[in-house]
Amino acid sequence: MGNTVTRGLRRYALYVLIWTVIGLFFFSQAIAQKFVAREPTPWWHYLVSWMVGVNLWAILTPGLLWLGHRFPIERRNWLRRTALHLLFSIGISLGQLAVESAILYRLAVFPSFMTGFVPTFVFLLILAFHQGIVTYFTVLGIQYGFRYYRQYQEREQQALRLELHTAELETQLVNAQLSALKMQLQPHFLFNTLNAIMVLVRQQKGRQAEEMLAHLSDLLRCVLEDVEAQEVSLRRELEYLQLYLSIEQVRFPDRLRTEISADPSILDAAVPQMGLQPIVENAIRHGLGKSSSAGKIQISAARVNDMLEIKVQDDGPGFPNGDSWQGRGIGLTNTRTRLHQLYGEGAKLTGENSERGGAIVTMLLPYHLAPESSGREVVEVHALHNADR
User: Fold this and answer.
1) Strands 256-262 and 295-304
2) What is d(CA 82, CA 67) in angstroms, rounded to the nearest whole number?
3) What is the 8-class DSSP label of residue 348?
4) Looking at the domain assignment, is residue 10 inside a domain?
5) How do residues 287-303 score in pLDDT, each as one tens digit?
6) Which of 178-192, 213-227, 303-317, 375-389 has the least mean pLDDT?
7) Is there a contact between 336 and 327 (Cβ–Cβ < 8 Å)?
8) What's the rounded Cα separation, in Å, for the pair 228 and 175?
9) 365 within 8 A of 325, measured Cβ to Cβ
10) Span 229-273, pLDDT tens digits
11) Is residue 102 part of a domain?
12) Are residues 225 and 359 in the same domain?
C-alpha cells in the first residue's frame, strides 16, 4: 500500500513538473507579445494566469489517462470511441475553464476585462475552449504513443523469447536424434554379439561363450557409465574398443591381430561415444570375415592441424572393384549421420582401398578436448603403440 501511494505521488509530481514547464514556455511567449504591444498589464498577471491553467490540467491529467485506458480507441471501434472522447473533452474543457475563471477572478488579475465570473468565463471560453479540446486529445495521443511503444517492446521481448525457445527446441531435437542414433547403433552391435554367442553355444563351445559374455558384460558396464554422453575422450573410446576387440578375439582366437597407435598427447581429444566400434566391426566382417587366413586390423589416431584423424585399416580384399565405401549398413550409416549431427560439415567419414591391399576407413573430426575427463576407474589400454594381439 505504501509503495503504491509513493509511486502515485511521484507520478503526480512528474505531471506537475511537465505542465509547469509547458506553462513557463507559453508565459515567455505572452511576455514577448506584451512588450511588443507595449501592454501595461503587470507581467505577473500573465504568470499567474498560465500557472493556474496548467496546474488545473496537471490535476486533471490522471483522470484523462484513466479515461484513455478505460475507453481505448481501437481499429474496431475508433469512430464510436472518438465521438465519446470528443464529448469528454468538451465537458472537461468547460469544467476546467469554469474553475480557472473562478480562481482568476478571485485573484484579481487582468481587472480590465475580468470584472466578474461570467465575463471571465466568456473571455476564457473564447480564448481557450478549443485549446482545451486539443489538450485533451494531446494527452491521449501521448498516452497511446507510450502504450504502443511498450507493446512494441513486449513483442520484441516475446520474439526473443520465442527465438530462444526455438533454439532450445532445436538443440533438444538434435540431442534426441543423436540419442536415437545411439540407440540404433548399440543394439545393432549387441544383437550381432549375442548372435555370435548363440553360434558358440550351438557349437558346444561353452567356455568361449562364457568368455564372450564376460567381455560383453564389461563393455556394457563401461558404456552405460557414459550413457548420457554424446562425446567422450579418445582414451575412453579406446577402452571401449579394447573391450569390443576382446569379444572378437574369442571368435577369432588364432586369426585376429590388432594394432592400436595413438599419440598420448591427443588422448583427451573428444570423439563420438562408440563411434569407432562400428567401423572396426565393419573391418573385421569384410576383412577378416571374408578370408580364411589370419588378418590384421590397424587403428591409428593423430592430430593433423586442427583436425583429429582416426584410421581403421584391414588387410582383407578391400572394396569391390576399387569402389570407395558409400556408407552402406546400419552401423556405418548411423556413424556418418551422427558425425553430421555433431559437427556438421566439419567432420568426414571416407573409405578407400589401400595400395598395399585391404581397405582404409578414415574419420576426420574437429579437434577439441572432451567436455569432461572421466574420473572413474578405467580398464587399462594395453600397448597403444604398435602392439599386436
Assistant:
1) parallel
2) 12
3) E
4) yes
5) 776 666 778 889 999 99
6) 375-389
7) yes
8) 10
9) no
10) 778 899 988 988 888 888 888 878 888 888 999 989 999 999 888
11) yes
12) yes
Whether residue 194 lies inside any domain: the answer is: no
Mark which of 137, 165, 193 sits at the end of a domain: 165
> What's the average model confidence in pLDDT over 312-319?
83
CB of 234 closer than 8 Å to CB of 367 = no
Task: Please say which residue of 113, 133, 165 terminates a domain.
Answer: 165
| CATH number of 341's domain | 3.30.565.10
The grid cell for 208 is: 568361449
Same domain, 215 and 161: no
Q: Which residues contact 338 (CB under 8 A, 6 or more apart)?
A: 178, 181, 182, 185, 272, 275
Residues 159 and 237 placed together within one structural domain of the fold: no
> Which residue, among 174, 180, 172, has the nearest Cα to 334 in the 3D structure?
180
Identify whether the C-beta of residue 368 lies closer than 8 Å to the C-beta of residue 239.
Answer: no
Domain count, the chain: 2
* DSSP summary character for residue 292: S
Largest CA distance in the chain: 129
Decide: pTM greater than 0.70: no
pLDDT in tens, 56-70: 999 999 999 999 999
Q: Would you say the C-alpha torsion 326, 329, 333, 335 has a positive or negative sign? A: negative
Residues 321 and 226 in one domain: yes
Ramachandran class of 329: left when φ > 0, alpha when ψ lies in -120 to 50, beta otherwise: left
Q: Which structural domain, as residue segments, surrounds residue 345? A: 205-388
